[in-house]
Specification:
CATH architecture of the largest domain: 3-Layer(aba) Sandwich
Order of helices and strands: EHEHEEEHEEEHEHEEHEHEHEH
Distance between the termini: 21 Å
CATH class of the largest domain: Alpha Beta
Shape: globular
CATH superfamily of the largest domain: HAD superfamily/HAD-like
CATH topology of the largest domain: Rossmann fold
Number of helices: 9
Helix content: 25-40%
Number of domains: 2
């Protein structure tokens, strides 16, 4: 099975999917190897990539493992939610200028103030903090375009609340999810349902929210653009995205006309 992050792994920061990579993934999927999109994106933002790849019906893991869907047709398979009131209060105490968003599955987000254009998809409703945390949510997004990822890593360390996890993105973007919910936990449910093991999975990613997935998979591969801490968690580091690193790793195991059928092991190849 192949588990693929989207942003920085399948598409560039403009959302463009390279033609050669699309063809490789399509060929792998049509040969019968499950290809599972495993992303921090909500389903609304994941669906266009699923459709551009023309994947066969199957699962996709969204919202950093908090949401698993089956498509097509759309079916919500699993969700993990939590009460975000305490953590949001703590975030705003530490970083009062932050914008906060709560995902509304299948429709969009509730936000305390607008995010930069293009960063969130779907229906965006501006609400009070009290309204935002009034119901259990799959995840909370914290954003401040005037801050840095280093500042947000420090923010996550200062918050230190139990019961949640804090993946930090490339920029000042913080995803807050229930403790123990991540891409690896989402994938575990999928491999169990499909009759695979973690050792059968090739996972490729480039972000801090991919660390657990790369450590869990039989072969976890970081794209060459990934931060040092992500590369350190991986079994192998492929080339940079712009140099075709994702496609290079897939072609290593899925050469034209052949599918890789034996379990992957925690070794670095070549």
């Amino acid at each position: 099975m192949v588990a693929l992050d989207i942003d920085g792994t399948l598409v560039d920061h403009e959302g463009v999917l390279p033609t050669e990579l699309r063809r490789t993934i399509r060929r792998i999927a049509m040969a019968g190897t499950p290809v599972i999109l495993t992303t921090g994106r909500a389903w609304l933002a994941t669906r266009p990539v699923f459709e551009e790849l023309d994947l066969p019906a199957g699962p996709a893991i969204c919202s950093n493992g908090a949401v698993t869907v089956q498509f097509p047709p759309f079916e919500l398979i699993n969700t993990r939610t939590f009460d975000a009131a305490d953590v949001v209060a703590r975030v705003l105490e530490e970083h009062p200028n932050a914008s906060i968003a709560a995902e509304v599955i299948g429709t969009g987000y509730r936000v305390t103030q607008p995010f930069p254009d293009g960063e969130l998809t779907g229906d965006i409703e501006v609400v009070s903090t009290e309204q935002l945390v009034g119901d259990d949510v799959t995840r909370i997004v914290v954003r401040d375009p005037n801050a840095s990822d280093t500042e947000f890593i420090a923010l996550a360390n200062r918050i230190g609340l139990h019961g949640v996890s804090y993946p930090v993105g490339w920029s000042a973007w913080l995803d807050i999810a229930p403790a123990g919910v991540n891409k690896a936990s989402g994938l575990q449910g999928v491999v169990d349902a499909l009759g695979f093991r973690a050792n059968d999975v090739l996972a490729i990613g480039d972000g801090r929210n991919d660390v657990e997935m790369l450590q869990w998979a039989g072969r976890g591969v970081a794209v060459g653009d990934a931060p040092v801490d992500v590369q350190s968690a991986a079994d192998h580091v492929t080339g940079c995205f712009a140099d075709g690193g994702t496609n290079e790793e897939l072609e290593r195991w899925f050469t034209r006309g052949r599918s890789f059928a034996r379990p992957l092991s925690k070794v670095s190849v070549g």
